[in-house]
Amino acid sequence: MIRNILYISASVIIFFVGLVLYGLILNSGEIPLSEALKEKNISKIENLRIVVDRSSYRLELYSGSVFIKSYKTVFGKNPGKIKSTANDLVTPIGEYIICAIDNSNKYHKFLQLSYPNERDAAEALKRGYINQNEFEVIMNSIENNECPPNSTRLGANIGIHGIGEYDIIFRNLPFTFNWTNGSIAISNKNIDELASIVKIGTPVKITY
Question: Per-residue DSSP letters for the chain?
Fold first, then answer.
């Protein structure tokens, strides 16, 4: 009985290690941002914008209209298209900006998005997800160029972040595993690249 348990445990460990090694091979072809810029003959990124495609699990960087590089991403645990509450685990769809940058986050680095935006707030008010007072609180933060507060039923604290402590495992999984609260996760190395070029106000468009 004990021998069977040991065999099963060893098989699971070997299988899991094999998955990670396979993922390492798949990711080995990814080139650094500096090399991607050289290939595009770009010495300086101008009008940086980010496009996140939930359907293809990719985050794409553009310098104006010129595509630079894409990154593998994962999203919220809930695959829904409409984010309606703070705890629904849905990654929102829409146009946002980076409103804050946290370089010492538990997920390595965190680029907070201006969710909910005016459209999110108006739609939520129309559907009865938030009340008039919550709508005005959100609008006030937008008018003051601040990150939206986390005090309304729509929540906030949605952004682009790394993986953190378990980076070596999650970034090398050869399959998609959505695990976030609705944020967009990329590897620690990739969030380092991203954080080196973004600034407050960088536009981020999330599509489905």
Answer: -HHHHHHHHHHHHHHHHHHHHHHHHHHTTPPPHHHHHHHTT-SS--SEEEEEETTTTEEEEEETTEEEEEEE-B-BSB--S---STTS-BPP-EEEEEEEEEEEETTEEEEEE--S-HHHHHHHHHHTSS-HHHHHHHHHHHHTT-PPPS-STT----EEE--GGGHHHHTT-SS----BSS-EE--HHHHHHHHTT--TT-EEEEE-
Tokens of 103: 């370089």
Q: What is the residue-level pLDDT of the chain in tens, covering all 208 positions?
A: 666 565 566 555 654 455 455 444 545 568 999 999 999 999 999 999 999 999 999 999 999 999 999 999 999 999 999 999 999 999 999 999 999 999 989 999 999 999 999 999 999 999 999 999 999 999 999 999 999 999 999 999 999 999 999 998 888 887 889 999 999 999 999 999 999 999 999 999 999 9
